[in-house]
Every structure is written in structure tokens, then in C-alpha cells.
């Protein structure tokens, strides 16, 4: 039986029993229920946070694994980007310099991918961290474009390399006769005494003394543009090597090639003689680049050691009389 509660009534000076109204009962009950609900929610929240369900535990573990894999992927993307940057720098500062190609402009190398809106259709509305996904896809897209640009650069360099190889084979780069001991070099390029007129005149080539019939060789790949007798030069062969280079071989005794024939460096094209204006058997050799006659000695670098080349340069500086006409 519930205890009866009393209160002291100051008017009657007596203890009167406390009368509980229906409203008080309802208010007390509602307060109790609210308090109980708050406590229950707190307990449920604590349980959910510290005691997840089996499915929630699996999802949390899967999220951790995905985050770990994303971090690994992010590091791999960064590594690929660094490697590509190294290739780009080597391309611009080494390869394109060697093959005389213009560097690729920075704005092209950067390969812009545009704004993020183009990637919105890749996302599911339920996916979280969409900015993380978009940024990763953007980086991959940019890398793909940069790699494509780099492959096109290598294609261009490959063509340049083929052209460079052809140019290196075509440039007149050896002596026109066998002269390893350098004893056959007679007169160099520059002002020299004319053998007939005995006055200083510009000698536009260099002379090699050699016995009659000594083989004369093409100094680079090219096409014979003339093989005929021309005034003071006598019997001469001219070869167009391309890339602005033409060589002339004069005072020959015989031809081994004809006009229009393709020749290779080191191929015999004729024989030493004394045709035209000449005081003795010798070869007069000229190099022309872009229409200007240049010093042939500057091109004797393929068949000589550095020491031999230095020695030949010293010989070429000596003031020796030329051996024939056709200046």
C-alpha cells in the first residue's frame, strides 16, 4: 500500500494529506518517459559506436582497405608523374637539342584537362568523397594526355634521328685520297702562290700530291651532278651531298662514276691525274656549303685521330704554292 504524504497547513495548524491531481500524474509520467527516452537513446548511441553490427564492421574494414589501396594508387600516380617529368626534361634539354628540334611549349606539355564538370557523369549519387574521386580521375587523364604528347615527341625525334643519320653519312667528312701519314697534303685553303702566274691568288680548295692513277674517293654519300672536263680544273667530278654540301674533285686522269649516279662515302669516283692547268699529278679538292666555298680541312675528322687532325691543321697553315689552276 502506497504511503500517504502529508504537508503542514499553516492555516489550520495541522498536517493535511497531499492530494495528487490527474494533471500532476500525467506530467510526472511524461517527464519520466522523456527521461527514459533520452537515457535509452544515449545507451543505443554508445552501443552503436562501440559495438557495431557485423555488417557495419565489414563495411568499416572494407573502407580501410579501400583507403589503403587509394593511398598506394596515389603514390604510384605520383611516381609515374615524376618519371614522366624526368623524360620531358631529358627530351627538351638533351634529345631535342642533339637533333636540333624546338622544345615543346610548356602549355602543350601541361595538357590541360578542363573543369571538373566533365567528370560528374562518372559519379554515383550515393558515392561519398566525390572530390577525391574526381581529382584522381583528373590526374590520370592529365597523365595520359602528357604521355601521348611525349610519344608524339619521340615519333618526331625518331624522324629527326633518321634525318640526322642521313646527314652524318652525307657530310664530306674524310680525305678524298688515302693519306693516313699526312705526307700527301700539299697546299691548303687561302691565299696561295699561283703555280703558273706566280702571283698570290685565293686558293678555294686544297691539293694532294699523289702518283698518277691513285684512287680518289667520295668524301660523303651523295649524287654525282657532273663528271666532265671543265677548263683549268680539267677532268672533274662534282657530288651533291644534300643539306647544302657539294664537293669537287679536279685534275683527274679517269672517271669511275657518271652523272646522276648515287655514291657512298669511301666509294672510288676517279683517279689522280694532271689534266687541266696542273704542274704535276695531284688532286684539287673543294667543299661548298650553301653556295660558299669553305676550307675542306675543317671536314677531315672521320678518318683521323685527334692528334692527326691537329697535325694536318698545322700543315694546312703553311704557306705552300698550289699545284694547279682552276681557282
TrEMBL record:
SUPFAM superfamilies: Duplicated hybrid motif (SSF51261). Residues 201-296 form the M23ase beta-sheet core domain. Residues 56-90 form a coiled coil. InterPro entries: Cell_wall_metabolism_enzyme, Dup_hybrid_motif, M23ase_b-sheet_dom. The keyword Magnesium does not apply. GO terms for molecular function: metalloendopeptidase activity. Keywords: Coiled coil, Hydrolase, Membrane, Transmembrane, Transmembrane helix. This is Murein DD-endopeptidase MepM and murein hydrolase activator NlpD, contain LysM domain. It comes from Thermoflexibacter ruber.
